[in-house]
Amino acid sequence: MKVVTRPPADGLPPVLVFPVGSVASSGVHMATPPVASRLVDLSAPALLWRRSKQVALQANRLVRWVATPERWPRPLLASTREMGVLLASHTVDMARADAEADPLLEAGKQHNLRLAAPAFDGLLLTPDRPLSFWRTLGRLTEHAGYRHGLALSGGCLTPSIGGGICLLANALFELTARQGWHILERFGHTMEAVPPPEGALWGMDATVAWPYVDLVVAPREGPVRLGARVMGGKLRLTLHGDAAPRTRSRLWSEDEAVLETPEGPVRTNRILRRVEDVSTGALVEEGLVAENRRRLLNPEARKRTCLTCGETECHARVEVPGAQGGRP
Questions:
Q1: pLDDT band (50, 70, 90) for residue 304
Q2: Per-residue pLDDT tens for 93-104?
Q3: Which residues lie closer than 8 Å to 258 by C-beta, 6 or more apart?
Q4: Which end of the chain is more exposed for a tag (fewer CB within 10 A), N or C?
Q5: pTM
C-alpha cells in the first residue's frame, strides 16, 4: 500500500492520505503530528502568521461543508422506536485521576462535557451518513455557555473556551474504532497532558480544533443510533442498531518507542486493526487506524499553564476571569 504524506503547514500536522482501495477506509486522513513549538517562543509576527493560517484553514473547511455535504452531513436524529439492539457502549470518568489537574480548568472541562454531550445523543448514523464531530457540535463559544478548560495549543497547556472537549472526541474514536467503523478523519494529540489509564491501549485518542481538525467516522453497517449521556461524573456513549453486528474487530499496537529529543521524551506507536466476519471468521479488513507521535510531560510540566507559568510577556497568554495565582 502506498501512503502519501502531505507536507505540514507551519505549526500544523502533516496528513497521511490513503488512496482509494487501500486496506484503510477510502478517503482516510490521519495525522502524524510533529512535536509542536511552544507559543511562548514565537514572536508577535510569527504568532500572527500562525493565526492567519488557522483562519484560512477554518474558512476552507466551512466551504467544504457546503460543497461536500455527503462527507459532512447535517446532524439528524434517529427514531427512538427503532434500533433497540445495544451494539456497544463505552464509559469514561470525566475527572482526572492525577494530582496535576488545575481545579478551575477541571471544573470548566466537566461543565463543557455536560453541555456538549446532548448534541450527540440520538444521532442517526449510516455508512453513507458519517459522524463529523464539529458538524454535529458547532463552534464552542462563551455565548453558547462554554467555559475555560484545559487545551493543548502550540506546544503549551492553555486555558481555552470549550477546553477539555477532547475527552468526548477520545471516547468517540475509541468506541467506533473498536466497533470496526470507518475512520475517515482523525488527528492525534502532540503532547500528553494527562497520563493514560493503566493497562489502556496507548494512542486511542483524537484531538479536535474548530472546524478543520475534526473526527469523522462512519459505521460499517447501519443504521446506528448514537447515545451520549453524562451521569454521575461519567460520560457514557452507546451504539444501538436493529440487529447484532456482522463483524468483530481487534486492535493492537506496533512500533512502540520512546525517543529522546531536545524537547524531551517523545513516544510513538501505530495502532492496527483486524476486522472479521462474525459468522465465518473471514478477514474483512486489516490496516492502520492511528499513528501517534506525542511529547511526554513530567508532573511539573503538566501543572504549567497560563495560570501558573509566569510568562507575562507571552503573546499567546490567556487570562481567565476568576483565576488568582492559578487557582479559583
A1: confident
A2: 999 988 888 999
A3: 265, 266, 267, 268, 296
A4: N
A5: 0.87
